Automatic annotation (TrEMBL):
Gene field: gjpA
Protein name: Outer membrane porin GjpA
InterPro entries registered for this protein in UniProt: GjpA-like (IPR049934)
Length: 381
């Protein structure tokens, strides 16, 4: 069955659900009856759960954005200012600056889908796209597969499913699919009509988890896992509009004037593999291996990539710089500490009064030309 939700249907459900919460019934006074008040409307349990989940998700998104709005763009501007200072200090730095810019662009581009990323980029990226428990899955899954399956192909697929691009795809699909998943779950649970509407509206904002256990007989019979291993539970989490996600990166910590932690902000992010919930039985040594899916929404996925970009471009928000440590100093926007370039006293004038400075003459333009010619654009894509 194709699951698709048209925008006007989504809006209709949200408006209808919101009206059930916010609009009290209009009571017309009856003849001879005075001071009659309409009964107060209280949120049912399903509506309370949807509202509270949405509030928590929105708090996570706003807190992440509020730490450093557009942090990836901020860090790129800080880097450009630093490059300007290097060029002012010594025009022979043109080649070094060009190479660093190329490396930065290549690193960010390769992190987008992880198909051509190096190990360091993968490690930094997956901290923003994979939860801690799913890291165990990624480490163990290739070893579970039969020997006749190409391990390189499997690793490439897993890399893509762990990438920010896969998280953006899941975030884009989630708000359209999650309400229908919630509808199916509510019908299976025998919920009332009011609970069904509440769950669908809540799913649009907060997501829902699709149970895929009906596929288990076919999957287990296909021999994808060596005996006696078999999958005992399978689910897929779809995020809602406000779903922030859960990843391995330690929370951002904000410190007060005394150095104490004033706030701890869970990092946003997710991916396709992070959305997968699975339980595998018969695992050697471990016995079983299982964890639930962690959904991500569209806003959370893009915020996560912005924060990742800042890290890859050199933002020093966390202790070890490996994408997993907890920051031990104030988390500040990169732009808050920028220092614009300064020039030496004789930069615009020579030894004599009014004598113009030669900015390295034609040598500077030769270096710029060589840097542009040597820029390997094909390596970026």
């Amino acid at each position: 069955m194709q699951l698709a939700l048209q925008p006007y249907v989504t809006a209709g459900i949200a408006i209808a659900g919101a009206s059930l919460i916010a609009v009290p019934p209009v009571a017309v006074p009856l003849p001879g009856v005075a001071n009659v008040q309409a009964p107060a409307i209280q949120l049912t349990g399903a509506w309370e759960d949807a509202f509270n989940a949405g509030s928590a998700n929105l708090s996570q998104l706003v807190n992440n954005y509020g730490l450093a709005p557009g942090v990836g763009f901020q860090q790129s501007l800080v880097n450009m200012v630093g490059f300007m200072q290097l060029l002012i200090n010594n025009d022979t730095n043109v080649t070094a600056v060009a190479e660093q810019m190329q490396d930065n662009i290549k690193t960010v581009f390769s992190s987008w889908d992880l198909l051509n990323a190096d190990d360091a980029t993968k490690a930094a990226t997956t901290a923003f796209t994979i939860a801690s428990d799913h890291n165990l899955l990624l480490g163990q899954l290739p070893g579970f597969l039969p020997p006749d399956i190409d391990a390189g192909m499997v690793n490439s697929i897993l890399d893509f499913m762990s990438s920010p691009l896969s998280g953006v795809i899941m975030g884009a699909l989630g708000p359209s699919i999650a309400p229908w998943v919630a509808l199916s779950n509510s019908i299976s649970d025998g919920d009332s009509f009011t609970e069904i509407i509440a769950n669908m509206v809540g799913a649009y904002f907060n997501g829902a988890t699709l149970n895929l256990n009906f596929l288990l007989p076919a999957i287990n019979d296909a021999g994808l896992l060596p005996a006696p291993m078999q999958i005992d539970n399978l689910e897929f989490a779809f995020g809602g509009l406000l779903t922030g996600g859960e990843v391995a990166h330690a929370p951002w910590k904000v410190f007060d004037s005394t150095g104490a932690v004033a706030a701890s902000v869970p990092v946003v992010g997710g991916s396709m593999i992070n959305s997968l919930g699975i339980n595998i039985l018969g695992v050697p040594v471990l016995g079983s291996l299982g964890f639930e899916g962690h959904a991500v929404g569209p806003i959370g996925a893009w915020l996560s990539f912005s924060e990742l970009t800042a890290q890859l471009l050199g933002a020093g928000w966390n202790e070890a710089g490996d994408g997993k440590g907890a920051p031990t100093s104030p988390v500040l926007p990169p732009w808050a500490g920028v220092q614009f370039p300064t020039v030496p006293d004789d930069y615009f004038g020579g030894a004599g009064a009014g004598e113009a400075t030669d900015f390295a003459g034609t040598d500077l333009w030769t270096q710029v030309s060589d840097a542009i010619a040597g820029f390997q654009w094909s390596d970026l894509f």
